[in-house]
Specification:
Cytochrome Bc1 Complex, Chain D, domain 2; 4% strand; mainly alpha; single chain; 2 domains
Length: 280
């Protein structure tokens, strides 16, 4: 009799978990997020795109490009953690706060910090990965070296050598020869970032944010992690070069514009004929 009751109780617990998702919480600084509260907020703000099951199939999804994130896979572009690992709660909080440029995901700064912490607690209930795995250990970002012409030129060589131009284009416009063929992990078309279009990246705005993208990769997209193949100094040089492609009044852009006119004839074009020492 006791065994029967125990089995029945276990069944009811499993049924409840299947219906409501795994119980989850979040910790962001001194904020404690509750999935129960987050569920109400999700139904109000997020369900139209991400769907009631968190699979990215909300009623608005058919009109959205790129498609909403599928939380059931627990694969996230913007992380401070190594490729293939779960993001930290802070990573998810930052993503909700910042939003995603060139997508329909807006910044959610109008809702409170506590609301955002509650939301990410509920988002974590959509995948059992959060029950089985811990977030990865955030990568260490070394101090940024000084911006110099030598750094920018070396970054341009890396852009050529690593074939970054094949996706992002010779001038960083997101129009490289491979751009039209790219798909994400769900086989949806995906566009490379256009550096000439603005000051923001998918995962931030600072040089440190751009460095982090190189070293963590954007999981679920063709953008890989270069943590195993690129030295930190090379990554910083690439950051400095990419900043010259943006419409910004940065130190990199000013340094480059001052130097380039007198040396333009020395530079080879970036692309299939560029080789080392490639140029815009």
């Amino acid at each position: 009799m006791k065994t029967t009751i125990s089995l029945a109780a276990t069944f009811l617990v499993l049924l409840a978990l299947a219906a409501t998702g795994f119980a989850q919480e979040s910790e962001v600084g001194n904020l404690h997020g509750s999935a129960a509260t987050g569920k109400v907020l999700y139904r109000r703000y997020c369900v139209g795109c991400h769907g009631p099951e968190g699979d990215g199939n909300g009623e608005n999804a058919q009109w959205i490009d790129p498609k909403p994130r599928d939380f059931t896979a627990a694969v996230f572009k913007c992380r401070s953690t190594p490729t293939g690992t779960l993001p930290t709660d802070q990573d998810l909080f930052d993503s909700v706060t910042r939003g995603f440029v060139t997508t329909n995901m807006p910044p959610w700064r109008p809702i409170t910090n506590q609301n955002r912490a509650d939301l990410i607690a509920y988002v974590k209930t959509f995948s059992a990965r959060w029950e089985k795995e811990k977030p990865g250990t955030p990568i260490t970002i070394p101090p940024e070296p000084a911006v110099t012409i030598a750094s920018i030129l070396h970054g341009r060589e890396i852009f050529q050598k690593n074939d970054c131009w094949k996706c992002h284009g010779p001038q960083g416009h997101g129009d490289g020869p491979s751009a039209a063929t790219l798909t994400d992990s769900k086989d949806n078309p995906i566009r490379p970032y256009n550096f000439a279009a603005g000051s923001r990246f998918k995962c931030g705005v600072s040089n440190q944010d751009l460095y982090r993208i190189f070293m963590t990769g954007l999981d679920g997209t063709p953008m890989p992690s270069y943590a195993d193949t690129m030295q930190p100094t090379d990554a910083w040089d690439l950051v400095h070069f990419l900043r010259t492609l943006q419409p910004l009044h940065t130190q990199e852009a000013a340094t480059w514009k001052e130097w380039l006119p007198a040396h333009r004839q020395e530079m080879k074009p970036i692309g299939p004929e560029g080789g080392s020492g490639a140029s815009q």
